[in-house]
Amino acid sequence: MPTLLERLAAYEPFTAMVVGDFMLDQSVYGAAERLSPDAPVPVLQASRFEDHPGGAANVALCLGELKADVLCFGVVGADREAQTLRDALAEAGCNVEGLLEDSTRPTTLKRSMIGLAQHRHPQKMFRLDMEVRDPLSDDLAERLLELITARLDEVDIVCLEDCDKGVCCAALCQRLIERCRAASKPFVVDPAAIADYSKYRGATAITPNRSEAELATGLGTPIEASQTHNAALAAKLLTDLQLEAVVLTLDRQGALLHERGRDPVLVPTSARSVYDVTGAGDMVLAALAGAIANRFNWNDAVRFANAGAGLAVEVFGAQPIPFANVQRAVLAESRSLDGKVRSLQELLVELAVHRQAGHKIVFTNGCFDLIHAGHVAYLAEAKQLGDVLVVAVNSDEQVRQLKGEGRPVCNESQRLEVLSALQFVDYVIVFGEPTPHEILRRLKPDLLVKGGDYSPQDVLGGEVVEQYGGAVRVVAHRRGLSSSQLIQRFAQAGAAADVAMPSPD
Asked: Can 102 be counted among the known catalytic residues?
């Protein structure tokens, strides 16, 4: 079975449909350094306005950053905010032909007042919402469903973002779920904070947080929510709504995944510095959709979604997280767990992920029998030439053939351990061939680096790298510092000590 990193390396663009409550988030920034003279409230001296798509619109932007072509379906008003929203989505590459206009309701607007006091970080002071939550008229719901049905065959997955603003009414949801099931289209829901989830029955999966799930199930909230309590929430939703999976998001604990026919499992996430949770749920929905569209298993899909959500809470406001950033987060977590030593197949996968993230791969190779200051200097310089440094180490047998009997002085595992301890080394791999030609052909680094006093054209394997468009560099060389020279000096020092030692009588 492919690993998560292998799935990420093979991740492909997809087409997603977003249905739901499309909103405009407006941030009003300014200084908040004094109180009003007529009331004990802070005064915001507005200096900057920012508009950002919110709700289902933010899900659409998140999907776009995760390599999706996005079709948007919802209802907006006949107002300036609707045009601002359409323009922002279209500029991001989203198709907005499915955003119907209803002159009887305004485009949902969330205006946040954000103050900065004494040059500190911005702080949200309060929010003003302008909205109508009435369900869509039957005629408008029917028109929206017709538009959706006409484009359903074009998409790989359908996302429903329900913010309880009236678009995701029961009649629309149930008919849409039926059509998605008939067309074998996965249907993933970020549910509203409501007491009745029956309108989501038959969906593929839902992604409530714990408090939303407690409201929908009616299960009481213990002071300390245990895994048993969380599992009970997920199990009830899974059964009552006839879902394939429930992804119960648990903030810093990660998410509880409960698949049909399997036991619930906690999928942990890395600890994050939480700055603003706005948009984290949108990112979970988008990342889960991208993973499902790319045929990830549920566990890997949730791990991918956790990584995206973890990055989303580290930024202010709802900001879509680029695919490359999510890749890097997953990769960093994998590397922290697995150390630096890799097999060739593992390294091929991880370097593919790095390349998709735009990283420059630097490669060097050698015996590294006795690692000394010369090695450290040139490896440090090599890392400065790119983003990722791969060190390929000759196997014990190859060192013996290259250097003669008695070598290596330090065996393979010892050499790998020392190299892995160097902070500027990212990956270490052993190769058993006499030359690095084959491993260079497989890994295709951007740059081959050697430390020495010879010219780039003399570097072994340089012709291989240049054939596929890579480059060769020679960096710092410290005279008198080589493993062979050090071993010879140690031997001479040992021999001199033996001569100076008086022989026993």
From this structure: no
